[in-house]
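TOKENISED FOLD:
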Amino acid sequence: MKRWLARIAVAMLLVLVVSGIITYTWLYPNRGPKMAIDPHEKGYVEEINGTRVLHLKGSPYEMGYQRGALVKDLLLLSERKIDELLDDAKEHVGLPKTAANLILDTVYALCSPHIPTRYKREMEGVADGSGVDLQLLRRIHVISVVTERGCSAFTAFGKATKNGDLYHGRNFDWITEAGLQDTAILVCCEPDGYHPFASVGYAAFTSVLTGINMEGISISQIGAITNDKQFSGTPLAYILRRILEETDDLDDATEILQNARRTVGYNYVIGDGDAKAARAFETTAHHCAVFTDNDPNETAEYAIPIDDAVFRSDEAMDPTVRSLQNCANAPDLPYGSESYDHRYKGIATDIQENYGQIDDNIALNILKDAAMRKASLHCALYNSTTREIWVAHAGSPELGKDAFAYKQPFVYYDLKKLFSQPHPNAKEKQQP
């Protein structure tokens, strides 16, 4: 009997050990090989009006290593900011840091099969170039799956604008207390085999929150909390990056959004500066509704359809998507919510009052008017036709209510110039 009990105990111990190894491997997956990279051969940093512009070029690992080495100080700062954010979570909601990390590690493990390998290799390059923990970078890239945010977006083009160009405004409304704005950069990416694109973001984010490619496709997203969600899918910021890297037009973008394995609820507004057209996408994990300007399917009583303008906040116009939402007073009508009254209706009113006269100055005013008053991390306006961007990031949290992005000066970037200028090392080589 003792012999049998001993055998059972050994078998149980073996099962526990194997289970532990499998769980550990699942939560902390293997990575690809480290490589010797000269970050200055293809990448470089320049300063424009007090902001950092990071130029990346090459394979995924090369671009990651370039980022890690060239803005190492900002990546190490990001590491500290995330750590402080987790400390705040423990203080305010009682969630221990180890538990928060385990949640994010689990979500990443669930999402990992749906994240393209090239993006994983880029994160590995960032870790190797900077010394920042790879597992932290993985966690950062699934925060969008477990957090909520507001945001708003609009496009105006054709008859709505003074020159017919497509203007695309995007408010990224999120907390400023975390100090993420201290790591803000504009990244000009030239990935091997894909479209060049510019990303308005933060040092530790290789995915895209706000950006435009050199084909004139501009992107934006809005949090739209839904009951129809799943944690096994592609995080939205990687879906947005795929759109910038892989699409030439709105049909391409539509195909990616409809076929992606989505996680939680988001609305999207995507513009095409060359076609001078835009579409809105209202999504949950299993539903995707698509709208154009003044769409006849936009029949919700609270909808304000306008020719040559597409805009969104949280509330969906599609009845199925709206029935699954729990944002903007859902399941009731959105009247009286900040999302509808301030952002959606505010944008519509501003467009109607300035119809046919919208230029960059008026578009900037529409953008600033629509930003959330107490959560404005960055604001960006694209002229998607001419490939120009205006960007404002939040100031120091110490400024309090004056720190919000919509109250800050906007910095102008000419993307055609940024992507066509020679690498500074090339200039040095030409000198005798």
Notes: The chain has a mean pLDDT of 91. Residues 2-27 form the longest helix (26 residues). Residues 182 and 396 are 7 Å apart (CA to CA).
